[in-house]
């Protein structure tokens, strides 16, 4: 049977850190659905459509990755695509409490879906979409942090806000 996993997140925008987790997850599962979900504590810079477009561009060379979005609970999305697993990246101890809360809640909601954590490559342990937006907003160089298409989308987005 085909093993499907879900890699959820805000992806506002996708970074090399996310991409590293996606590539590694895609090696282990038959299909990896990267899904843009709403995080109610965040106010996104990019629309869901823009985020999907960027994820599609930078994952186009990974054949078993599908890109999607969902309004609602992650476990409901996972069920709808018959996924048995959720993949999340862990950067540092500081991520642990937040991730433990989400994972425990998801397990209460549906204990048939298992969450797996992938330790972020050390190279990206400091990296977050928020820090990338902060640097890009003030015209700093983010070329080592995000793919070129994301870098230009950030540049355009901040130029249109001036
Ligand atoms: O990239 P993020 O912002 O850390 O991702 C968090 C996300 C979007 C995965 C999380 O907020 C989420 O799963 N949102 C969907 C709503 C949901 O299922 N909430 C219940 C678990 S707390």
TrEMBL record:
Domain Cytidyltransferase-like: from-to ranges: 6-134
Biological or metabolic pathway of the protein: Cofactor biosynthesis; coenzyme A biosynthesis; CoA from (R)-pantothenate: step 4/5
Gene Ontology annotations for the cellular component aspect, listed alphabetically: cytoplasm
Reaction(s) this enzyme catalyzes, per UniProt: (R)-4'-phosphopantetheine + ATP + H(+) = 3'-dephospho-CoA + diphosphate
Superkingdom of source: Bacteria
Enzyme Commission number, as recorded: 2.7.7.3
An annotated GO BP: coenzyme A biosynthetic process
Keywords: ATP-binding, Coenzyme A biosynthesis, Cytoplasm, Magnesium, Nucleotide-binding, Nucleotidyltransferase, Transferase
Cofactor requirements of the protein: Mg(2+)
Pfam family, one: CTP_transf_like
Keyword Cell wall biogenesis/degradation carried by entry: no
Chief place where the protein resides: cytoplasm
Record site: Transition state stabilizer: 18
Annotated substrate binding sites: 10, 42, 74, 88
Function: Reversibly transfers an adenylyl group from ATP to 4'-phosphopantetheine, yielding dephospho-CoA (dPCoA) and pyrophosphate.
Subunit structure and binding partners: Homohexamer.
Family: Belongs to the bacterial CoaD family.
Protein name (database record): Phosphopantetheine adenylyltransferase
Organism: Bacillus mesophilum
Gene name in the database record: coaD
């Amino acid at each position: 049977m085909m093993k499907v996993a879900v890699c959820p997140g805000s992806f506002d925008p996708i970074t090399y850190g996310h991409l590293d987790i996606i590539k590694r997850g895609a090696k282990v599962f038959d299909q990896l659905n990267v899904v843009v979900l709403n995080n109610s504590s965040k106010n996104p810079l990019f629309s869901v459509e823009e985020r999907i477009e960027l994820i599609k561009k930078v994952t186009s060379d990974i054949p078993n990755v599908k890109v999607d979005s969902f309004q609602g609970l992650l476990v409901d999305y996972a069920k709808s695509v018959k996924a048995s697993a959720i993949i999340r990246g862990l950067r540092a101890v500081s991520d642990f409490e937040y991730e433990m809360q989400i994972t425990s809640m998801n397990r209460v909601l549906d204990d048939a879906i298992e969450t797996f954590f992938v330790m972020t490559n050390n190279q990206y342990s400091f990296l977050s979409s928020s820090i990338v937006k902060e640097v890009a907003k003030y015209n700093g160089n983010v070329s080592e942090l995000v793919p070129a298409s994301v870098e230009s989308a950030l540049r355009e987005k901040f130029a249109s806000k001036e």
